[in-house]
Amino acid sequence: MKMYILVKESIPLGIAMTAVGHAAVACYKKYQDTEDMKTWLDKSFKKVVCKVNDEEFEKAKVVENNIVLTESSLNNQETAIVFAPREEFPKQFKFYRLYK
């Protein structure tokens, strides 16, 4: 079971780091009462952070149970998207680049 966080590659590193932290907390707050979140907290706590281009970001938005984050210092530009923990993600997630 994993939580995926996708960060736009165009976002500066410092803002990207903040976005990842905000994403994890926002995801927990929104989905804290779901069985998948409870299982993830108790047995996994794995997070996968990936760097994506604008096209990948837009395509990922159609995957259910997500939260899109914005940054006020970037005129409310979308910076990251987080997906509620689950066992299986769509195939496209396997091709996203890990954020290193």
Q: Could you explain how this protein is built, in words?
A:
With 100 residues, the protein is α+β, with helices and mostly antiparallel strands. Helices cover 35% and strands 32% of the residues. It is globular, with a radius of gyration of 13 Å. The mean pLDDT is 97.
Topology summary:
Layout: E1 2-8, H1 13-31, H2 35-43, E2 46-52, H3 54-60, E3 66-71, E4 77-86, E5 97-98
Parallel strand pairs: 1-2
Antiparallel strand pairs: 1-4, 2-5, 3-4
Order of helices and strands: EHHEHEEE
Strand content: 25-35%
- Tell me the strand order in the biggest sheet: 3-4-1-2-5
Q: Tally of extended strands? A: 5
| Main β-sheet description | 5 strands, mixed
